[in-house]
């Protein structure tokens, strides 16, 4: 199954190449957590995950032709 991934800000360092927007082929079924593991994003890294425009937990299954966005957690004061 093909998945488009977009990484932002500090999370870009986990991209497999020079671009922060790339496609990844995954076995079916796969979850958001599987992608985090494949990209080797550390569990301690604070991030927000959007799957097809909606917040997603690590256990969320990925459907065909999905778009996964991972960005640093936004904090304010």
Protein architecture, described:
It is built from one helix and five strands. The chain is mainly beta. It has one domain (2-60). It has a five-stranded mixed sheet with strand order 2-1-5-3-4, with no helix packed on it. The longest helix has 8 residues, at 32-39. The chain is globular and about 40 Å long. The termini are far apart.
Break the fold down into its secondary structure elements and pairings:
Elements: E1 2-7, E2 21-25, H1 32-39, E3 47-51, E4 54-55, E5 66-72
Parallel strand pairs: 1-5
Antiparallel strand pairs: 1-2, 3-4, 3-5
Rough shape? globular
Separate helix tally: 1
Q: Which parts are unreliable, with pLDDT below 50 for 5 consecutive residues or more?
A: none
How far apart the termini lie comes to: 40 Å
The number of domains: 1
Q: Please write the string of helix (H) and strand (E) elements.
A: EEHEEE
Counting DSSP E segments of at least 2 residues, the number of strands comes to 5
The chain-level structural class is mainly beta
Mean of all residue-level pLDDT scores: 92
- Give the spatial strand order of the biggest sheet: 2-1-5-3-4
The major sheet is characterized as: 5 strands, mixed
Radius of gyration: 12 Å
| Helix fraction by DSSP (H/I, runs of at least 4) | 10-25%
Strand content: 25-35%
């Amino acid at each position: 199954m093909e998945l488009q991934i977009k990484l932002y800000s500090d999370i870009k360092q986990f991209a497999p190449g020079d671009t922060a927007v790339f496609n990844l082929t995954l076995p079916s079924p796969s979850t958001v957590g599987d992608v985090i593991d494949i990209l080797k994003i550390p569990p301690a890294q604070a991030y927000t995950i959007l799957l097809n425009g909606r917040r997603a937990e690590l256990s969320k299954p990925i459907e065909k032709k999905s778009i996964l966005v991972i960005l640093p957690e936004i904090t304010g004061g």
